[in-house]
Amino acid sequence: MPPVLYIVVPCYNEEKVLPLTSPMFLKKLLDLASAGKISRESRILFVNDGSKDGTWKLISSLAGLNPHFAGISLSRNRGHQNALLAGLMHAKDLCDVTISIDCDGQDDIDAMDRMIDAYLDGADIVYGVRSDRKSDTFFKRTTAQGFYKFLNLMGAEVVYNHADYRLMSSRALKEFAKFREVNIFLRGMVPMVGFKSTSVYYERHERLAGKSHYPLKKMLALAFNGITSLSIKPIRIITCFGFLVAAVSVIGIIWSVIMGILQSPTGGWASTVSIMCFLGGIQLLSLGVIGEYVGKIYLETKARPRYIISEVTGEPGGQTKEEPGKENEPGKE
């Protein structure tokens, strides 16, 4: 029997692009079903991440017109990663396999055919990886490539040039649900699940409409969150640097004592102030990094819900309902 597929699409203020991409997703779903690769019970699940425009109204309208569309709406904006997690956790018990993809139409939906083929060949996780970055500006290409290299350097295990376009089987999702972190970075957490995995390569297109919700500021925040959520290497670097500075300081003290005994003049105030400013800056930077980890521990101990689903539309059978106040505990549906 063909597997049931849920295409999970996080949406935030996407009323301009959704009318363009939703027919594309539907056509791909029907083509895969016609080819016998997936069940006709498969669906496209939109996740409204607290949009301020008419995104949820549009999703509800789509679900009312076609049973292949479904949607969930979060009670407020929780960010792309939490919205995607909400969709995956909602879908994991309703399907055999999910494919997550952004709403903007930049990711090549034809790569889904190869993802499903890889799943049918036994892969539980299939990563969509960009084959090149020709469509990016020089600045975007340079910063993005540096982003992945820096993450790997800092100990975060990520697939190079892979964002959140991926296939995950329900088996992988059920194991992933056991990850209970509040601070999540999916592209670094998914490889930790294990199971058989592979990659498919595709070219990314220009955004069909609207504007990107991931400017440089958010990319930097995402990178820092990924590093501090997945690795303690920055703290180890600080420790090693502390030992190095201490060793140099001991050598400096010995040198000063010897110069004092020989009654030779030592350096003036400028060198002393420079060293003090340098060490003061390093201390503040180190405290900031350590503080970031302490803050994450503080948030993890609170164990607040990572998302709250307020409404559901287009459930199996074409029903529409509301679920006000439905809370999702970390790692639970």
Description:
There is one protein chain. Helix content is 47%, strand content 19%. With 333 residues, the protein is α/β, with parallel strands linked by helices. The protein has two domains: 232 residues, Spore Coat Polysaccharide Biosynthesis Protein SpsA, Chain A, CATH 3.90.550; 70 residues.
Briefly characterize the structure.
The protein is 47% helix and 19% strand. It has 10 helices and 9 strands. Strand 8 and strand 9 form a beta hairpin.
For the secondary structure, the number of strands is 9
- The CATH architecture assignment of the largest domain turns out to be Alpha-Beta Complex
And the CATH topology of the largest domain? Spore Coat Polysaccharide Biosynthesis Protein SpsA, Chain A
Indicate the overall shape: elongated
CATH superfamily of the largest domain: Spore Coat Polysaccharide Biosynthesis Protein SpsA, Chain A
Q: End-to-end distance, in Å?
A: 26 Å
CATH class label of the largest domain: Alpha Beta
Order of helices and strands: EHEHEHEHEHEHHEHHHEE
pLDDT averaged over residues: 78
Count of discrete structural domains: 2
Structural class: alpha/beta
Largest sheet: 9 strands, mixed
Across the major sheet, the strand order is 7-5-6-4-1-2-3-8-9
Low-confidence stretches: 317-333
Beta-strand share of residues: 15-25%
**What is the helical fraction, as a range of percent?**
40-55%
- Radius of gyration from the alpha-carbon trace, in angstroms: 25 Å
Number of helices: 10
